[in-house]
Design goal:
Elements: H1 5-15, H2 22-28, H3 32-37, H4 45-66, H5 72-82, H6 85-95, H7 105-109, H8 116-134, H9 136-155, H10 163-171, E1 179-187, E2 194-201, E3 204-211, H11 214-234
Antiparallel strand pairs: 1-2, 2-3
């Protein structure tokens, strides 16, 4: 992967930012593995630390101002749904961020570009870079613009953290239904296994999922089953 100026400009266009200090941005998209491979290069862990706080503050203020009917406890729960790893990963996917993160060849070969934690952490680092480069008011607007769909879903309580539990609750409202998860196959080296799972409901395959752990693949298969059920109910 060649990380040149055109590469940086391409990502800037995707997230609709023009950095005055490009070094902030370059550091934000640099994984520690890349810095370990090429010495004396800054990586994004310190920016991630700052970005987490900036994100928390901006989301907290937004919810405080616009959710006046919510209690402190309700606001805390909503915020936790917005600033969690899954939501950050959703933003990363929107930006196609996995393609642009600077990482070592070894990290890339073991699935680093697809890793949820790496992409989520990078989103926080980018938020910090924007804060340092543009200031709090700019980054506040940037965050609300990029998280608006997630914020709306969180306020409406439409974000599901545990798809397996939600699927069970949905299906067993009117009595017991047989729900089974079957590991179909796994592939890849032991340190980077990819698992493929189906969820079987009353002997019918209702969802398929994959992930870098059996738990993740089961959650994704349950998520697909829920989507199918929702589509069926809307017909």
């Amino acid at each position: 992967m060649k990380y040149d100026n055109s590469f940086i400009e391409e990502l800037e266009k995707i997230i609709n930012i023009n950095f005055d200090n490009k070094d902030y941005f370059i550091t934000a998209i640099t994984h520690s593995s890349y810095a370990n491979q090429y010495k004396n290069i800054r990586f994004n862990e310190r920016l991630e630390f700052l970005g987490d706080s900036v994100l928390q503050l901006c989301i907290t203020e937004h919810l405080f101002n616009y959710c006046k009917d919510k209690s402190e406890g309700e606001l805390t729960k909503i915020r936790s749904l917005i600033v969690c790893e899954n939501s950050l990963y959703e933003v990363a996917l929107k930006w196609q961020l996995g393609k642009y993160i600077r990482m070592s060849k070894g990290e890339e070969l073991t699935g680093g570009r697809e890793r949820v934690s790496i992409q989520a952490d990078c989103v926080e680092a980018i938020i910090a870079a924007i804060y340092l480069d543009k200031g709090i008011e700019f980054v506040k607007t940037f965050i609300i613009d990029n998280f608006k769909d997630i914020i709306l879903k969180a306020v409406r309580n439409e974000i599901i953290m545990d798809y397996k539990t939600k699927l069970q609750e949905t299906l067993q409202k009117n009595g017991e239904i047989d729900i089974r998860y079957k590991l179909v196959k796994y592939e890849g080296p032991p340190h980077r296994r990819k698992f493929y799972t189906t969820v079987i409901i009353d002997d019918e395959i209702m969802g398929e999922g994959q992930g870098f752990s059996k738990k993740e693949s089961e959650q994704n298969s349950a998520k697909e089953a829920l989507t199918k059920l929702e589509d069926k109910n809307e017909q």
